Amino acid sequence: MHRTRRKSPIGHVLGLAVLVLAVAGLVSSGSALGGARQACGTVTLNEQAWAGSTANTYVAKYVLEKRLGCTVKITKIAEIPVFQAMADGKVDAVLEDWQHVDQYQQFVRKQKSVVLAGSNGLIGHIGWFIPRYLLKQYPEFKTWRGLKGKEQVFRSPESGSQGMFLGGDPSYVQKDKELIQLLGLNFKHVTVGAEPAQVARFMQLIKQRKPVIFYWWTPQYLNASLDLVEVQLPPRFKGCKDDASSGGDIKQYRCRYDAYPLMKLFSKRFATSGSPAVKVLRNFRWSNADQNLVAKWIAGDKVKPEKAAERWVKANAAKVNAWLK
Amino acid sequence: MASVAADTVSTRPLSHRPWWRGRLVGVGVVVALMVASYRLGVTTDANGVAVARFPWPEELVWNAFPGHLDAFQTWLLDQRNAEDPSIVFALFNGFATLVDSLVSWLDRFLLWLTWVGTAATATLVALRFGGVRAAAWVAGALAAFALMGLWEESMQTVALMLAAVALSLAVGIPVGIAAGLSTRVQRAVTPVLDTMQIVPAFAYLMPVVILFSVGPGAAVVATMIYAIPPAVRITALGIRSVAPNTVEAATSLGATRPQILAKVQLPLARRMLMLGVNQTILFALSMVVIAGLIGGGGLGDLVTSGLYSSPAMAILAGAAIVIVAMALDRATEATASRTDPTRRHLDDSARRTLRFLTVGAAAAAAASVALAKELGAPAAYPEGRSAQEWLLARIQSALDYVQDPARFLFAVTEPLGNAILVHLVQPLQSFLILGPWFTTLAGVTAIALVVSGVRPALTTLAMFVAIGVVGMWEPAMDTFSQVLVATGIAVAIGIALGIAASESALVSRALRPVNDVLQTLPQLVYIIPFVYLMPVSIVPGIVAGVLYAFPVVVRLVERGLRDVAPEAVEAASAFGASRTQLIAKVKVPLAGDAIMLGINQGIIMVLAVVVIGGLVGSGGLGYLVTEGLVRGQFGQGVAASLAILALGIALDRVTQATRQAGKEVLA
Lengths: 325, 667
Known about the structure:
The complex is a heterodimer. By secondary structure, chain A is of the alpha/beta class. Chain A folds into two domains: 37-123 and 260-324, Periplasmic binding protein-like II (D-Maltodextrin-Binding Protein, domain 2, 3-Layer(aba) Sandwich); 124-259, D-Maltodextrin-Binding Protein, domain 2 (3-Layer(aba) Sandwich), CATH 3.40.190. Chain A has 13 helices and nine strands. In chain A, helix 2 packs across helix 11 and helix 2 crosses helix 12. Mean pLDDT of chain A is 87; it is low at 1-11 and 13-36. Residues 1-16 and 661-667 of chain B have low confidence and may be disordered. By secondary structure, chain B is an all-alpha fold. A two-stranded antiparallel ribbon of chain B has the order 1-2. At the A-B interface, helix 3, helix 4, helix 8 and helix 11 of A face helix 3, helix 8, helix 14, helix 17 and helix 18 of B.
């Protein structure tokens, strides 16, 4: 799907050139693989809303189309409904999932209609962040202990006498209310809604060089242009948990967030289809820095996703060839 | 109720003492008592922060409720994905597949025609059936899609929406007719419609996906849930508003019931039916973004992903959605009025001419498609030759201005946002959240009793108890306070603009497109700039509610004022009343009925965007519903949605009963 480009008269020459290149690419990659391989057919990838996911999806699309001759369709179904879409074989693969434990239980373990296809190489990490300029005046803000008694620095009209803590997007794992309570901090946890709204909130404060503390994570392309510092939270201990929505004893949340690998998911149907795309997507791995770069091109510099993918693939032939092995 | 009777008796002919004035005293007393008890109920915690001494008691919460709902969803998932699922699921799936293929066939057909062919065919069809204005709207819309470089996405959305609107009408009109003919059906259907309209789509998206999978079929189903109610309601109203003596006359002439329906009631209700079609289109188009979340594709997808990585693109796609809505609406409206049998009387020669024109238009359309294909016109207008880059750059520079806190605008909007928060929302919020639960409960019930009577008071009591029992007391009180503020602002703006519109045709005409834009432009598109301009949570959500609700208030107030009996106005002006006096002392009191309906509808509209508020920081129930969908916490999402519904029903009954009481007084 996404955008079937039709050539305008002006684009004819260019179109021809692309065609020649594509054929050449096919021939060369074909010969590299010894020519003996199954036809790829159509692969449906699901792009999630955030820029990093767009980067994954379009890089994979570029490689599958240009190097394997697949036709790649892109759907944009929300994070939870996409599990049923995979169970129905309407989506073949999701290239970045932030560990939806309940859905893994239902679709991966119980029904076995969705298959975990390993990590995409990215390490997701959540924490409390502040802009670096705050450290000049308050070097003690590097750790949570330093925040104690100075919460008022983060006051805002909506937090009243307390400091304001900007909470994260509701779709992400979090336990900040619990941490605030457990650490005895005088913060008011303010929910700012979805990611774009949260970005809007802290960006306004950062532009005015005002104090702000918020839930944030890596990989995120904005991190490259924002100078943020993570506030050190208590160390992890055995049995410490991150997802407060699962309830239970509040004490089990008193530690910093874990860093965990982001997963790829295949539909069972795709995983067992024997398509050459399966192997390539299984091998698909890159780093936080790679993704941040491509996502920044797309979301920051407004480069078309197709172009951004092409640029990265051309500059990283070695990484891409490793996926094709 | 006795005081009400006394009020009515003491009213003088023209300067009606409005029915609510006597009640205002009662409401004032109740609120004063609540405020007094609030002071007793609040205490402070270790950090010196005010907390409730009497929050809703844990013993009165049905804690297992969300768990049961989660278990139900798991059961449904297991059944649905079992080795051999029951025939019921096959039926649902079959329906979805049917709609899937219908939509994708339509979409492919539009592309097969080539963009030239589609443009020529659509314009000719509009010209033949809707006239020049309709053709101009259609051609203009198509030109806009081409210019925006969004041809293909727009065609996907048009295909999806044509299917959704057609199916909504196919269900809605027959049900509406049944409800119009039978009070019993009407009574049975109303709560279902209320539920469909108030329960946020986020709550039923997962069940829809489980039953209908993802794709255009599921997207159409989700859209239908929201778009059917206006079709039913307005059709029923149309049938009911046919003068009873007309029906009696037909009966006495020996017409059978089906004959009366087909020959008398439906033709006479035609204008209402068309209003129903119009509202169904607008309601359906307001679901484009949500439909995108479950595979609807098209412009909705661009809005969602645009919000994260390219806000300018989200705004452009949002504008395209509005254009789809307005073109569909104006074209159907023009077609309806041109083909209105009561307005045109065709003789044989006129009929022949029309037939000739139809054939001509069809031939011209076919010829243009053939020619376009011969000349190799592309399926979609080439993006490379659009003005998309230029448009995006313009939008981006506007966004850059809005997002820069050093600009003048920010210096105005930030303090305004803070003022709304500190002086309006926060006092009400702490009043409702921190006040003792039993005085709040007694207070709202007493207000309902004073304003509307016993039945609405009992409903209100039951609804607020239900909110507490599903464990949503605190977030619901939070949302309640925000709804009150948003409705208050929306009603104030709505009444002011409604009066202006009723006095001036120019204002009235200028407001119509504003109304269409605000009803169909995805809220997230216009609300993100407000997050930058008024960076305090809650306020952008309130702005969303106000912007979504006030046009409805304007329309109803305007209608009410225009419908005020001309004799009353003439009589007052004969006594030398000035224009201001006329409005304040005659028209507004006499239009109290319509104004109350405006308040009532305003509340419902504000509740409809509570979830959007949750996405931009309003917290409360909206946040919990969102979290329910995005974190797969089905039970919590449904519980919060039920609390929204309960709040909606309570507020609706209170204001609706007032409306009826007002009607009695006026009668």
